[in-house]
Fold this protein.
Amino acid sequence: MTPEPNRADLHKDPKRVSGMFDEVAAGYDRTNDILSLGQDRLWRIATRDAVAPKAGERILDLAAGTGASSVALARSGAEVVAGDFSPGMIAEGRRRHGGIPNLSFVEADATNLPFADDEFDAVTISFGLRNVVDTAKALEEMLRVTKPGGRLVICEFSHPQSPVFAALYSFYNDRVLPVVAKVVSSNAEAYDYLNESIRDWPAQRPLMARIRQAGWTDVAYRDLTFGIVALHRAVKRSVSEAIAQEHDR
């Protein structure tokens, strides 16, 4: 008897979410490319440009999946750590990209990162923050492992601000995507969760507020593909700025 596919829900139990991604790891990138109509490639380029990796930097790419985004960062000469809490994704990433210089894969829980304080020049997470059980804790952990003056880039599904485009997007997600997912994905039910998690996720400005509350500064965002996706950026205070803030209190 074939076991039922693993399906996460909005409680975001880490074991169920991780298990769901384990099941879709092999075909994950191809499925995303089809379902996004190729837009995922453009989102990856925009994220890489926002991170602006430089040779000699140390960068953490969280929710890295099979490492598609990590490879682009590593090509800059930066040392890139691809972190994901799905063992299946990490295994697939190592199989595909294990020989790339400056790129390593680490199993990592965003709410309890296995790294030292002030270790990375930049931290980025793409399409993974909304799957974390505790968003605030994850943002605080990212801040902890980032060097003073370092940067954060979050690429995540968001909410189109045009009512007309929002209606078209909702129609695609509710009517078209589930049908296509049944054809191209090994676990179509995982994409039902995708729709639920996008609807439940905060819009652009509320997410900015959450990032600020975690301690990040200079928080800004820009929409990609009419707001289907938003690219949020922030900076960790430098040592001098932190001292000045304490002095002003």
